[in-house]
Design a protein that fits this description.
Blueprint lengths: L1 H5 L2 H13 L5 H8 L3 H7 L2 H11 L13 H75 L2 H13 L4 H36 L1
């Protein structure tokens, strides 16, 4: 400590100024230095050092301080304003992220509902198609041995149907195909949104 005290104040002042101008010495550092000893406390509170800090940390806000305010007081005011600005910017960024996550969750839930609906539609179509195939196979087998009267009744029942069985089978096969395609689209969309959500969390 004695060797430090032997250094003249002007030299210490120069050391502090060089540190500030090199942008390696912050206001927080200056406050830490000021509590180390009386000499550095006096030097760190000099207007010249605070003026240097003002010009380095707030180059776009350089203005002469009011007569009632010292450079240090002006620095504190601008420092608090800057900290408040950064805090508000951080809060806005967090709100944007939360909004994005909420939107991703909404889309995921929507796709999950569509997936359930499409799977149920596919299940119903497959079940009806399977039944129609069975009926068709049984019908072919009955045609071999059933009496002429039964064949006539069967023909009459078929003619009374609004949609012929063959058309219904083709329609169901097309519906099954479309359901599978839709399921693939929804699965890809779900994975894509889930990936984006994980990347933004």
């Amino acid at each position: 400590m004695s060797s430090k005290n032997e250094l003249p104040g002007e030299l210490w002042r120069k050391i502090l100024e060089i540190g500030i101008k090199a942008s390696n010495f912050t206001f927080k550092d200056l406050c830490c230095v000021s509590i180390s000893c009386r000499r550095l406390y006096r030097l760190s509170n000099e207007d010249s050092l605070c003026s240097h800090l003002l010009s380095v940390d707030f180059p776009n806000q350089i203005s002469s301080p009011p007569s009632s305010s010292s450079p240090k007081s002006l620095y504190k005011i601008r420092f608090e304003r800057e900290r408040e600005r950064k805090l508000l910017a951080h809060k806005r960024a967090v709100l944007r992220k939360e909004s994005q996550v909420s939107e991703h969750l909404r889309k995921l839930r929507e796709i999950e509902v569509r997936l359930r609906e499409e799977r149920q539609k596919l299940k119903s179509a497959v079940s009806e198609l399977s039944n129609l195939h069975k009926v068709s196979q049984v019908s072919v087998a009955l045609d071999v041995w059933q009496p002429e009267v039964m064949r006539g009744r069967k023909k009459q029942m078929v003619e009374q149907c609004v949609v012929p069985v063959e058309f219904r089978v083709r329609a169901l096969e097309m519906e099954v195909k479309l359901c599978n395609q839709q399921l693939q689209v929804f699965d890809k969309a779900y994975v894509s949104i889930d990936f984006l959500w994980c990347a933004n969390v």
